[in-house]
Predict the 3D structure of the following.
Amino acid sequence: MSEKSIAIVGATGAVGLEFISVLEKLNLPIKNLKLLASKRSAGKTLKFKQTGIPVEETTRESFKNVDIALFSAGSSISRLYAEDVKNSGCVMIDNSSAFRMDADVPLVIPEINPQDALKHNGIIANPNCSTIIMLMAVYPIHKKYPVKRIVLSTYQAASGAGWEAMEELRKASIAYLNDQPFQQTIMPHPYAFNLFSHNSKMLENGYNEEEMKTFKESRKILHDDNISITATCVRVPIFRAHSEAVNMEFHNEAPSVEECKTLLDEFPGIKVIDDRKNNHFPMPNEASGNYDCLVGRIRKDESLPSKAINLFVCGDQLLKGAALNAVQIAKLLV
Amino acid sequence: MSEKSIAIVGATGAVGLEFISVLEKLNLPIKNLKLLASKRSAGKTLKFKQTGIPVEETTRESFKNVDIALFSAGSSISRLYAEDVKNSGCVMIDNSSAFRMDADVPLVIPEINPQDALKHNGIIANPNCSTIIMLMAVYPIHKKYPVKRIVLSTYQAASGAGWEAMEELRKASIAYLNDQPFQQTIMPHPYAFNLFSHNSKMLENGYNEEEMKTFKESRKILHDDNISITATCVRVPIFRAHSEAVNMEFHNEAPSVEECKTLLDEFPGIKVIDDRKNNHFPMPNEASGNYDCLVGRIRKDESLPSKAINLFVCGDQLLKGAALNAVQIAKLLV
């Protein structure tokens, strides 16, 4: 592997900071690391492998001599610099939704469709966090027993809306516990000890964008237009790990619970936690900071026993849901 | 309506206190109110309609001259006194699961099967909280368009495990926010900013008791053995209102979203909150303290558009999930 020059755009955000930590842990061969952010954050210094690196303001010139640029600064920033990145001969790995559904942009989960990453035209998209975490649990089974329909309910953490949302959850909770008033500015609804329908844009069909992403992105990643997904996406007062209740109906007969466990156990990036005796199943507190997605509650659906199963998955939104998946994509390129 | 003598067993518990408040609000004709609890709580004084009432220790003699006894002190206490209650000519309205599935014990949601309440043999059971809140949202539609199968995911509050669990959530959250250690004693897992699979007993089939209650109790309440329910029950860090994501598949063609809204709007005890423009849907903070169950996110299931719909319901676990429903049953008897 030749050493690469890597840039992080949005380096001071919740995902940006995880990019730095994951680049260290996965030990990518890095020649040079460039930390980019908005003018407001420029001048800060962040640590990478014991060395302080100054954060620079992102400009159209930032991508010269950069091989891979990891973007996590929102769709508008990704769109703003996409041409500059491409013209510099650099590859953008984009955590935003800007290009995910573009026909010439691969949408990649390295454990599932690594081969797609190599067909890029300068941009590779990182899927939506809920989609990644769901498919990590679905794909090991789907690969052998094709899934026809998924009924999905999510329990999504604050981190999906950035560190400001995590901070709002913290501050709102402190105020609530002290019987103090609190006015939210990031989330549309009170977040302390409360939950609410996902705060993404509501569409004509009554679904929000987050819900439709799980459907559309899954079809693209799996290269399977015969899978359908109906989702209910909910924000819960949890800091950084998403949980998802997944009901999977198969085209043919459902595999046994034991076989599902074996298929999941053998899959990289998955840890099965399904200890019925001790009522120990996946939980956000154990998924947080964990590179693996935790899967459990694997059981036949008693309402459709020959055709469907239920399971529950937890994954760190900032890691496998964002930074880890993106750095794994980068690793496919080096 | 003739005045009744009413007893509350478990008067100092989370549901017990709501019994007192709901008895006041629903203005039942009460001749005498007796507050009963364990020896430990006896001697306390609680207020009912501006009058202090001393809490007495429950004994086998407690039910003499009592017409209706509202029980919420756990299954073992309900079992312990059931014969004494019946022998006193008193009717037990039991919030525990002790007798719910007994063939001669009606299981009643007053808006759904009030006629069953009158067929009692001294005991009427109050259904499980998740079941009540789910069926309040399902029945108005099911009555006209029979439901075949439900995929249910719950987001359940601490109150279902009593006020000790609510206190544990509060204390664990304070400790978490202050970076202090905390050892839980009520819940099996850390509760601060965390969620976990429902803490009821795990059964052979991989479902916990709470999940199987939603299935079995629904069939009994609806008098319909053709409805199947597969549930995933989860505790979330919320104090007192349950939320539930409900996917309903119909035997025949699904009704339109507009018709579902109309059917729900017209049903007593339901408030439709489905404001897509402002992303305002049912939330626990608005369901808490509310006698109505809140229903929204009503939409066609895009994975099965001619046959299924999704909706989201929130209800106060201590009110419609427990005390309110029980007092409404008492009202049917007076």
Q: What stands out?
A: The longest strand of chain A covers residues 241-250. Chain A has a mean pLDDT of 97.
